[in-house]
Amino acid sequence: MSDYVFGANIIENLTTGMYQDSRIIYREYIQNACDQIDKAIKMGILIKGEEEIYIELDSPTRTITITDNATGISKSDFARTLSNIADSDKKLGEDKGFRGIGRLCGLAYCSKLIFSSSAKGENVISKMTCDAEEMRKLINENETGEKHTAIEVLESINEFSEEKTDDLQSHWFKVELIGINDENTALLDFKGIKDYLSFVAPVPYKNTFIYRSEIYQHAKEIGVVIDEYNIRLNGEQVLKEYKTNYKTRSGEDEIFTVAFNDMYDDSNRLIAWSWIGISRFKGVIERECLMRGIRLRKENIQIGNEDALQPLFKEERGIHYFVGEVFGISKDLIPNAQRDYFNENPMRKEFERRLKIYFKEELHKVYHDGSDVNSAFKKIDDATKKAAEYEEKKKNGYFVDESHARKAEEDVERAKLEAEKARKLLEKKKKSDDGSSVIVKQIIEQTERIRTTEVDEV
Question: Contact at 8 Å (CB) between 109 and 180?
Fold first, then answer.
């Protein structure tokens, strides 16, 4: 039986061909750092709150550096750990990453990829330098007929070295991407990367988001902890940039409360939980709003993009009426290799089944009812406005003749009839007791409060 041969193209599949969005390198390296921070805390090397993941973008030198103060890797384990491909020591269901392939992703976007580390109590800094340009050259040769195996490519591009250090107490791991490719300049865009990390990385909510306390309290009540880490980009702390107000296609809207949904299996084990912002649902949230959509998360790291859960909605546009997050909790909800969704298994099917019920039977009705409520109040306002305009015109003798006045009066009467229908609709929704009725009643009450405030201000 002949030996199995893994060609150089497998390296390309794990680097250039693995991800569609180059920014995913940040997620992969942050994920690895978070796992090591968790271990450092368990080992007593760190106290929660002392952890730090520092990302530095240096546009002039086209360099990205990602450093953590976790366990580091000991001298004896460094070469083995960094050499192994898809043979990670991490555990499925415990660690955020577990496949052992994410560290290769940077090779697609730079000329050199350098890993270096120091472990507590050791006087050595271990380093692995990967020649990404040479990797791409060998892969191209492979495609033109000069065959190379994956092992030949790795042996050719990887170089290990060591240097001494006097700092025996330090413990860290560093990733450096040197010479970012011209076509990947977006990786050096501070604002673009900060916006991306604000919703992808496992970071705290911005303290100006007034509903953060309610979200944390709910998580505590159901016995879960939202994983959060101190991540800085060029010195600035990265936070989830949620806020209460945003633009829709029908004007400004505002979150005035949050609603929670907890999903349990038949054995009463928590599968997932979510929060959504409750607004007046005036319309689809503008695309420019970074926080729009209901984000899917596992260990508080975003899975896929903002539309990962869109297929579970009855209408494609449905997800864009909402702001919120779904946190996968079950260990059997396993992110796939690209981390754009979960692996297919019985738990994923159960997760989707229950989430579809929530999305289709409750949230679908919520934003449609919200639209009906907005329309109803508009009809009431239109009737009031038309009646006032009619009286003003009548008072000032605006009407040219009786026919003109009669037509205007008929318009007012029609508007009054529409307003009366609108009031009855609102009353009916107030008395409804279906799954979404609580939220719809809150929307009506909030709209009435706003209208009362506006009248008082006038």
Answer: yes
